[in-house]
């Protein structure tokens, strides 16, 4: 197995230390604003990018548990559901409320952020509950607990009138925008990168490589595992909250076991432990079915077989997964990151940007 | 009282079938440490093979003993071959790679099969569920009271077939050279290879065995519930997987016990508590078992090699 | 300090996001109509279809996943209607074409597909899905963009409440639940009934709720409510529990894919009372899956295949010729929805969203195969329901119940 690529302590950089903490934000926010502005008016791109963004958040956050810590969680959709329902429910309740000292649009966004954080916090709390059994469970048994949790959440939602039962919650105000989604994408990537390079992250890598050895070296394995879970589920909850605010309806059918598996696929395909990999794989796998739709559409739409092409997408998707894994078993990026690979291609080192 | 007995019978009937599917999971896990997520879908393919055979041999033939045997034989052998192909082309190339890699190909195959069978092109059956032909004509085998408790002939036959398959498997694993080889591979496949065991062949045979069993289980399931659909593998596969874990995955008798327990728990939750909460209770029970016995009912938490 | 700075900036980012949002109008509900009109006007004028000689329609349905069998039936019905319309000369000399997208039985995919149809393919009109949650997701997008949408078979009341661009050609859940309650109480004279609902389907839960309420109001008693999940195949536990309460009948408002098997297992555990259900039962597959066990059961439906009306008989014959099987209710409703759409397109003064919307809204006494369609002020079809009795391989008309 390849050794995980840890970021090497950086050579003295041009950025003054005081700025280093906020520099990514300084660059990211204007970029996001520009990005947001350029999308105004094209609904389809907006929607697609929002879906892509949510999947990136899910994949990058799951990568913290499955990739970096070497645990095996297949219940990510459950955390997402918690976030989606709590945030969606909060927004529905606060629909008529506006903060008087702010313009309506601004007050909506503040409330939206509150709802998101509520969803994230609830998901994190669930992550703590699920993380606790990892005190005793290893490997596939832990996987089953996460799977069971996801299913229990689904059944719970399905039986709760406040959450709309099988019909789901509809009429959630559509506050989300690609700018907001990618702001969170940015946060989760930044957090994952910072984590990977920190002493905390090194402990996670140690647990992944050999739990017993890590423990012998004085790593509080349980504590780290639980924290990794909480961290990861917080972002899954955020992703769910965002999801609830641009898809106009959330419904238990969106958070099934199959959805969890799709996120696992993104993480493994990208390369376990590679944030970049999760990022790229999430984009690729989300756009793939839509791309097939465009491709088939271009081949002609009026024949009777063409009417059936939408049914053929999913089997092809499955077969593509097999082919991709066979041709690149370590995942697209292995455990490497773009910032490990890039300097080799670029003539000069540029490491200011996270 | 009568109702309790009826629930018991229903639960056992469901449990024995989960058990056959769970055995497939557990065997493959034993030798490869791979959760074969495509297992349920392989079962589904087997059921459709049996369905096609039952129609091919015609209405008269399918009721006879030979007809039933033919349906089972075609499905089980066909599925064994299918399992062999999957192992050869989708799993074997990834044997020395990280474990999760093969899991993804398993998911890929599962998607391809369950969605592929929803197409109505060529021989593919289409999304709509179909009635499985009654290859065993239903007759009451035992009636207690005023039809308070009814046991049907096919329930008995299914039970006997299931138990027969399990006994045969137990003999195969613990009483034959192949079984010894299989256990050796499961213990440590590298060392097993050094001892002269043809690991590739053992693993391939294990896959064939588990896929064949799945087909048999699927047919019993289809006889019991009289319908087949492309998504049946997903539901049954998930339940059987849970059953295998309850028993301690990799442990052959454990899978059987786990499956029976799961079948009974589900039945009694629906019968005596709220049916809406069935799946939640089943999984809650599973988590509870794992909290008390982290390796499942029979599995041991392997001592870590340091 | 280093931790504070990012948080501060996060707050800033929110402000930035908030400011940007002001530029977007928020078309929602009645107030949004004008904005939507403005938008849709530009959408349609930009469409290549407007100039060419085809009119493009869109359909989103479940072609894969747990509800695929319903989505495919609907698609077949729509396809047949459009083929007929084109053979009859299309709409004002223009041919009709349709683009069908799959939603995998998931609302987020439905919303995505609807958005794609509206903005990329620039369809004139969208035909919706079977499952109400998917139709709701599409309705929100269609309403915001000002593109009319007709759902063939989403029966949940909230779907058409999304706005004035959303229509349906089927009756709604409260009516259908009432129909069966009335029939069970007054015609079958049942006193005590058990309910077995599909907990994964909003349709089933709605019908079950309404039935329970109405049946109790009419003096009956609902002994127990049990539930299953779409995709289950073993219902013996629920049925054994129901048997204990000794009901006079069982109301099973589910889909044929499950009901057939439920009927078999009900007979197997020794329940001999009649089963009752809704339009989800209507399919040839019901007889195949249910065998003789389903005989003697009743369900409410939009139309009776026995109806001697030549239009109905021609539809059934054409459908059989094209797809090899008797059409189910979903196919009939898909067919009706497409024909209502075609008629409206013929009447509309142009192909812009509001013009088509107004034309659809005027639909009155439209002779569909699944009943006569008149759209009321809430954009719901007002039609009567028929109750059918399941016989040996066919259904038999029993009675008609009007709203």
Automatic annotation (TrEMBL), chain A:
InterPro entries: ABC_transp_permease (IPR001851), LivM-like (IPR043428). GO terms for molecular function: branched-chain amino acid transmembrane transporter activity. It comes from the Bacteria. It comes from Myxococcus llanfairpwllgwyngyllgogerychwyrndrobwllllantysiliogogogochensis. It is found in: Cell membrane. Its main location: membrane. The keyword Transferase does not apply. GO terms for cellular component: plasma membrane. The chain crosses the membrane at residues 21-39, 45-65, 72-90, 110-132, 139-157, 177-196, 228-251, 263-288. This is Branched-chain amino acid ABC transporter permease. It is a multi-pass membrane protein. Keywords: Cell membrane, Membrane, Transmembrane, Transmembrane helix.
From TrEMBL, chain B:
It is found in: Cell membrane. CDD domains: TM_PBP1_LivH_like. GO terms for molecular function: L-isoleucine transmembrane transporter activity; L-leucine transmembrane transporter activity; L-phenylalanine transmembrane transporter activity; L-valine transmembrane transporter activity. Its main location: membrane. It is a multi-pass membrane protein. It comes from the Bacteria. Keywords: Amino-acid transport, Cell inner membrane, Cell membrane, Membrane, Transmembrane, Transmembrane helix, Transport. One of its GO terms (biological process) is L-alanine transport. The chain crosses the membrane at residues 12-32, 64-86, 98-117, 152-174, 202-223, 280-303. Pfam families: BPD_transp_2. InterPro entries: ABC_BtuC-like (IPR037294), ABC_transp_permease (IPR001851), BCAA_transport_permease (IPR052157). Belongs to the binding-protein-dependent transport system permease family. LivHM subfamily. This is Branched-chain amino acid ABC transporter permease. It comes from Myxococcus llanfairpwllgwyngyllgogerychwyrndrobwllllantysiliogogogochensis.
UniProtKB/TrEMBL annotation, chain C:
It comes from the Bacteria. Residues 1-18 form the signal peptide. Residues 22-47 are annotated as: Disordered. Residues 34-46 have a biased composition (Polar residues). The keyword Ligase does not apply. GO terms for biological process: amino acid transport. The keyword Transmembrane helix does not apply. Coiled coil: none annotated. Keywords: Amino-acid transport, Signal, Transport. Belongs to the leucine-binding protein family. This is ABC transporter substrate-binding protein. It comes from Myxococcus llanfairpwllgwyngyllgogerychwyrndrobwllllantysiliogogogochensis.
